Amino acid sequence: MSERPIIEDLQGRTHVVSIPMRVRFRGVEKREALLIDGPCGWGEFAPFVEYSDAEAARWLAAALEASYGTWPAPVRDAVPVNATVPAVGTGQVAAVLARFDGCTTAKVKVAEAGQTLADDLDRVAAVRAAMGERARLRVDANGGWSVDDALRALTRLAPYDLEYAEQPCATVEELAELRRALARNGTDVPIAADESIRKADDPLRVARLGAADIIVVKVAPLGGVTRALEIVEACGLPAVVSSALDTSVGISAGVALASALPELEHACGLGTVGLFTSDVAVPTLRPVGGVLLPRRVRPDPAALADLSAPPDRQAWWWDRLARCLALVGAGPVPQPPG
Question: Is 218 one of the catalytic residues?
């Protein structure tokens, strides 16, 4: 065993990239990420810019696990993946879906600021029409609805045969209240918790309060593949692995988690590299035939150079890395092989 790297050890190992999005997603038009070329592989540190250092430190722990540690062994050799449809107009739906080869499940963003329920209904209808009746559809509100608004919206959206609604309300208590209201209303839409897992001090409250049927887990916000596996086991609920607008380096960690889960009942949200105009890896880690195969990703040097962020953003990310490394602490990591 060795100690976590000190900041001097990381000098010369980091690359900050800035990748344009094909469409605006979560308010992001250019995705920035700091990549670490560690002794055990590549890791990705890419918390969104508005996140606090305390929250971002968990993302760094995941990046250090990938670059200085090991991942659990896989129990499956392929991971099914869903398409992701941002809050676009109906005329853009077909083009978005075309970027997700072979995917038979789609997650549709709803409750976008400045849009209406009518916009959501039209978008979901367009996805259903494009993918057919046998496809699985799920919606993601990112906590954007009140309980009353969520009940109203999901009652209207239920005829599209939703697989589940992801984080329709912001708090765990609201999710629990909504589940009870949907049951009383006879509306059969399962609830999945995302932010209530990855942004919570106590992610197990979701299970204790009966607030969800499914949990959505992301490697980086939970502090790594091993930690995410522990949370899934403790919750005791079916899990969906998702990404956070990761490059292929970050996606590979999500695939490592999904391939190590004892059970995997749902397609995973790990196909989001297709939302970028380019990527750090050649070939990119994008679904083929609706699946991803677990593997380590090594970025292409030419792509790193082409996508390199401006000097001021390089400095910003280096400062953030140093602050978060102090918060992660000096926990042990495995020695590199050999």
Answer: yes
